[in-house]
Amino acid sequence: MSTSASSASGDDAVLLGDRRAPSKGERQRRAILDCLPELLSRRPIGELTVGEIAAAAGVRRSGFYFYFESKYAPLAVITAEIWTELMSRAQYFARGADESVRDFIGRTGDIALGLWRDHEGVLTASVQAIPLDEQMATLWDEWNQQLADVIANQVIEDQKKGVAHPVSDDVRGLITMLLEMTMHVFYMDRLRKNDPEQTHATREMVLAIWLASAWGIPNAP
């Protein structure tokens, strides 16, 4: 079989070592996605227009609509990329054999906080879009459930070992609610532009709630 036959999976396949330059369409689409975080660092999504996004990306307004049906669509794509980054670290949401529950909660909390710091504008806009865009609302529900399943499995495992004593028998429901709470609290922290000291105090309060609710551990040294 010739080597060219390995590309039979489709024209869109990108093989290792492929040096083809991105097409004009791919470059334009990526330009729209890449300009959005900078725009969102200065203005909320509700104030941005499609025309402004298109101009920043260097494409025509009609070109924007060729790729995306609304200004929330590229926002959803970027948020999905951030979420993929988070879920690629899913193994870090399992407690190590020699790791205390407090250390585990602190470590995973810092992963989430780091994500909010690194992608502040996009994540803030994404949360603001939840009541305005059905797709965004659905995506956040799906993402939270994915993460809830991972963390709930850890709590259930700890429960079997007598380490965790969750306040509800519905562990997955409890974790889902705690994740939604955490999302809102971190969102408000970034929206208010809290200084590092205030953010640290927020972190400590959130971790205390997680410890008490999911593991039944009081916030004591």
From TrEMBL:
Any one Pfam family match given in the protein's UniProt record, by short name: EthR_C
Residue ranges annotated for the HTH tetR-type domain, each copy included: 26-86
Alphabetical keyword list: DNA-binding
Superkingdom of origin organism: Bacteria
The entry's DNA-binding region: 49-68
Record-linked Gene3D superfamilies: Homeodomain-like (1.10.10.60), Tetracycline Repressor, domain 2 (1.10.357.10)
Location of region: Disordered: 1-22
Protein name: TetR/AcrR family transcriptional regulator
Species annotation: [Mycobacterium] wendilense
High-level lineage: Bacteria, Bacillati, Actinomycetota, Actinomycetes, Mycobacteriales
